[in-house]
Amino acid sequence: MAILPITIFGDKILREKTKDFEMIDGNTIKLIQDMFETMRTADGIGLAANQVGIDKSIFIIDLSPVEGFEKLKPMVFINPKIITRSDELVKLEEGCLSIPNLRASVERPEALKIQYLDTDEKLQELDADGYLARVIQHEFDHLIGKVYTDRVDPITKKKLKDDLLRIRRRQFDVDYLTAE
């Protein structure tokens, strides 16, 4: 397994829509393993492929370090599509490995239904709510070229402007590998 450099806010690939996998092969499995290694090394709980410079439609989640989710197994979502989202919205603070040392409250639907391929290329469907639904939506956003700061209210966006500029200029300290 390898630790991959994490792309940072301002990197073009974070704003591009990713491409679906046509087939899942050994390279896909290696990417998944490397993504889990990278995410865990950076103390993350979710990671999308474009966050490690790969323009493919895949993200991973491991909520087991989060209190109340210790028994939830790591998850892989290949070519995901969100089918439905609830009307009920919940505001909660989010952070992102690609936007280091910055957090902001984001309003998102409380629940969703997502369809995706597993590593055996079997179509799966998952109903998720609460924190799991939030993390899924956060990672799915990466695949469509969005980051959580795109979803904050206008006043918060204005407050984050200087911090985002500092991050874009690579003026931050983290203890994980980032893309140049």
Verbal overview:
The protein has 180 residues and is α+β, with helices and mostly antiparallel strands. Helix content is 25%, strand content 28%. It contains three helices and seven strands, in the order αβββββββαα. A five-stranded antiparallel β-sheet has the order 1-2-3-6-7. A two-stranded antiparallel ribbon has the order 4-5. The two termini are 21 Å apart. The model has no long low-confidence stretch (mean pLDDT 97).
Q: Label the overall shape.
A: globular
| Parts with pLDDT < 50 across at least 5 consecutive residues | none
The side-by-side strand order for the widest beta sheet comes to: 1-2-3-6-7
Radius of gyration: 16 Å
Structural class: alpha+beta
Largest sheet features: 5 strands, antiparallel
Characteristics of this structure?
28% strand; five-stranded antiparallel sheet; alpha+beta; two-stranded antiparallel ribbon; 7 strands; 180 residues
SSE layout and pairings?
Blueprint: H1 26-41, E1 46-48, E2 58-61, E3 75-85, E4 89-96, E5 99-109, E6 111-117, E7 123-129, H2 130-143, H3 154-168
Antiparallel strand pairs: 1-2, 2-3, 3-6, 4-5, 6-7
Give a brief outline of the structure:
By secondary structure, the protein is an alpha+beta fold. The chain has 3 helices and 7 strands; from the N terminus they run H-E-E-E-E-E-E-E-H-H.
